[in-house]
Every structure is written in structure tokens, then in C-alpha cells.
Design brief:
Arginase, Chain A, eight-stranded parallel beta sheet, 10 helices, 8 strands, 36% helix, globular
């Protein structure tokens, strides 16, 4: 059964992103009533407020990385906060913030899984594979690197967050909705053998079969972590992101994806990242994200 004790952790920074604005994501999710909507589902929801960290200096890359010391500081804060909630027996939902913050949250979840002898499965719902390194990144933006860093490919400052190197291995990831991978990044992804269910796969076999494959092997000893980048969704329904990529899942496909995850009863932690209210229309993307997160906790059209 899914944990009914939920902790919301705001992480208001766009430190790893290429556009300003993801720092406003946590507040947009609160304005869209995330806490009240989850409480209505019978969950015990506590909002822990926002973590603190360095301001975004908005500087060019140094040695292939933008804002490395600041990204490290934010991720260490995320790691400690997420691990503390898991240790209390609560289900943490990180309200991002950009996707570089997943280094902190997933390293904390991986640490918790090692302590509890649980199997970790990460569902990475995203338009991007986020497996760049300093050698291949076109931009130096660290929000394009968290999966690589978690798998031990990246700067010492980030691969060592949480103290266990690598924090995770590529086999724990199932990436769904991918449709934008940089040329050199494709080679890294292939070499690491991360499981990717790209949009072509979803087009060919449908979302139902894709999610059955992505969730195969999840059992009662599995901790399921959902890393939900809002740019996973098609920009026609979710314009409020910094890096829109056409051709993502539509509303019904996204709902089915979330409902099938909910059906496992194994969700243990969630990231909601890359929501950028600066690009949104009347907070519609935040409202949609809240709607989908409700579906992760069992909201469906009919009583099944």
C-alpha cells in the first residue's frame, strides 16, 4: 500500500537550468492547491516549506559546468531533507526547481533503499535523457546531467552527494517519454544501457504496454521513485516549461501512465521539476501537474 503520510519539500531554484523561472515552481504548485487536493484524497499532508540555498549567479560555464558549487549546495540540502522524511516513514514530494535537484533526491532515496534492503526503481518521466557530461554538454547546464551524475559519471562534487559512489546504477532507471537526446549523449546512454521507452516506442506499442514494460519486476520489496519533469508532457497541454519539445504524451496518455503507476501501490517518493510559471498560461501547467499527481495517489475516472 502507498504511504498515506506525505511531506512537501519546496526547492525554489533554477540553478541548473538554461532559463530563469523554475525557482517559482514550488509556489505555482501550492497556488494550484497541491496540498489540499492530496489531503482530500485522505492523505496526511505536511508542507515543510522551502529549502534554502545559494542564489543563482547566472554565470557562464566553468570547465564544462554552470554553477557547480551552487548546484552541489542545493543538492546536499535536498539529500538531507528527502532522507529525513523517508527516515520518519513519510513519502517526500520534492517541489522543484530544475531537474539537477534529482541528484539530491534520488541519492537520498537510494541511500534509504540500501538501509532498508529494498529494490529501487526510478521512473524518469521526461522529454530528455539527462545523461550529459562536461565532455559532451552543449550548454554546461547541469539539469541535463543528473542521471549521468547519479550513475557516477560527472564531477566529484555531484557524484559524491550522499557519500555513496555511484549513488545508483543505470539498471534502476526506466526513462519514459524521451524525445530529445543530444548527439554525443546518445552514445553515453547506449553504453550505460539505461532502459529508454522513447516516444517512438509509445507510438508503436501504446502507453499501456510501455508502462507494463517499465513497471515489470516491481514487487512488494520495491521502492518506486517518480521523477516527473513537466516537459514530459506535450507542450500543447503543458506550456509552462523552459525546454519544450513537441510530440510528448497527451492528456489521456499521461493520465494512464500515472494511473498504472498508482496501481502498483509501490510509490515511495516523487520529484516534480522544471515547472516554469514564467512560460505558463494562467498556471495551467501547474494545475495539470497537480491533477496528474492526484492520479498517482489513486484518482481515476471510475472506481476500479
Amino acid at each position: 500500500m502507498v504511504n498515506k503520510s506525505i511531506s512537501l519539500i519546496g526547492v525554489p531554484t533554477d540553478i541548473g537550468a538554461g532559463h530563469r523561472g523554475a525557482s517559482m515552481g514550488p509556489e505555482a504548485l501550492r497556488v494550484a492547491n497541491l496540498s489540499a487536493r492530496l489531503a482530500k484524497r485522505g492523505l496526511d499532508v505536511v508542507d515543510r516549506g522551502n529549502l534554502q540555498g545559494p542564489l543563482n549567479p547566472w554565470l557562464p560555464p566553468q570547465d564544462g559546468y554552470r554553477h557547480l558549487p551552487e548546484v552541489r549546495a542545493w543538492n546536499e540540502a535536498v539529500h538531507e531533507a528527502v532522507h529525513a522524511e523517508l527516515a520518519l516513514g513519510r513519502l517526500p514530494i520534492m517541489l522543484g526547481g530544475d531537474h539537477s535537484l534529482a541528484i539530491g533526491s534520488i541519492s537520498a532515496v537510494a541511500r534509504y533503499c540500501r538501509e532498508q534492503r529494498k529494490q529501487l526503481r526510478v521512473l524518469w518521466l521526461d522529454a530528455h535523457a539527462d545523461f550529459n557530461t562536461a565532455e559532451v554538454t552543449p550548454s554546461g547546464n547541469i539539469h541535463g546531467m543528473p542521471v549521468a551524475c547519479l550513475c557516477g559519471k560527472g564531477p566529484k562534487e555531484l557524484v559524491e552527494v550522499g557519500g555513496h559512489v555511484p549513488a545508483t546504477t543505470p539498471d534502476v532507471f526506466r526513462q519514459v517519454g524521451i524525445r530529445s537526446v543530444d548527439e554525443a549523449e546518445k552514445r553515453l546512454v547506449r553504453e550505460s544501457q539505461v532502459s529508454i521507452f522513447d516516444m517512438r516506442h509509445i507510438d508503436e506499442v501504446g502507453m499501456k504496454r510501455t508502462m507494463e514494460e517499465a513497471l515489470a519486476g516491481v514487487d512488494e520489496n520495491t521502492h518506486l521513485h517518480i521523477s516527473f519533469d513537466v516537459d514530459f508532457l506535450d507542450p500543447t497541454i503543458a506550456p509552462g516549461v523552459g525546454t519544450t519539445v513537441r510530440g510528448g504524451p497527451n492528456y489521456r496518455e499521461a493520465q494512464l501512465c500515472m494511473e498504472m503507476i498508482a496501481d502498483t501501490g509501490r510509490i515511495g517518493s516523487i520529484d516534480i521539476v522544471e515547472l516554469n510559471p514564467a512560460f505558463d498560461k494562467k498556471n495551467q501547467t501547474a494545475r495539470l501537474a497537480v491533477d496528474l499527481v492526484e492520479s498517482l495517489f489513486g484518482k481515476s475516472t471510475l472506481i476500479r
